[in-house]
Amino acid sequence: MKTKTIIELLTLSSSLYVLARDTKFLEKLNEYSEKGKDNINKAMAESQLDENGNELEFMDKIFLKTHEFKEELDTKIEELVAKFYKKINVAHLDEIKALNEKIEKLDTAVALLEARLNKMEA
Predict the structure, then answer these.
(1) Do 64 and 48 form a contact (C-beta atoms < 8 A)?
(2) Widest CA span in the chain
(3) How many CA atoms does the CB half-sphere of 36 hold within 13 Å?
(4) Is 52 helix (H, G, I), strand (E, B) or coil?
(5) Helix %, strand %, coil % for the chain, to 5?
(6) Kind and range of the H or E element at 4?
(7) Are 72 and 78 in contact (CB under 8 A)?
(8) Per-residue tens of pLDDT for the chain, all 122 residues
(9) How far is it, in rounded angstroms, from Cα 58 to Cα 38?
(10) 50: Cβ contacts below 8 Å, ≥ 6 apart
(11) Phi/psi zone of residue 54: left (φ > 0), alpha (ψ -120 to 50 degrees), beta?
């Protein structure tokens, strides 16, 4: 009887935990969707004019905002790619410098060996 009660309590507590976690997730999701809805409403409430001075229609506003977002996203991606390539380039430059130093050390070692060989031959 005690084992059955403990198992039931564990099952109940784990179920309550899962429900609480799901509730927190749903609250977060609801919060994000409210923020997004507010931002969309704010953007659509702005009066925007076309080149003729007429107010843009709803779909035209959406296209305009989408185009602005795409340009902003392209700019951010370009910046991140440039930073990435700079990091890669720096890494390659460091490797090249290290290899050049090794070549110089090997050249001096070869020169010393040649000098010893010449001395032995003489």
Answers:
(1) yes
(2) 101
(3) 6
(4) coil
(5) 90, 0, 10
(6) helix 2-45
(7) no
(8) 566 677 776 676 777 666 666 677 667 767 777 777 777 667 666 666 666 667 767 667 777 778 888 888 888 888 888 888 777 776 677 788 888 999 999 999 999 999 898 888 87
(9) 16
(10) 56, 60
(11) beta
CA torsion through residues 20, 21, 24, 25, sign = negative
Residues whose CB falls within 8 Å of the CB of residue 43, separated by 6 or more in sequence, listed in order:
61, 65
Contact indicator for 61, 39 with CB cutoff of 8 Å: no
C-alpha pair distances (Å), 75 with each of 38, 43, 68, 78, 89: 25, 21, 11, 5, 21
Instruction: Decide: pTM greater than 0.90.
Output: no
Nearest one of 74, 71, 68 to 39, comparing CA atoms:
68
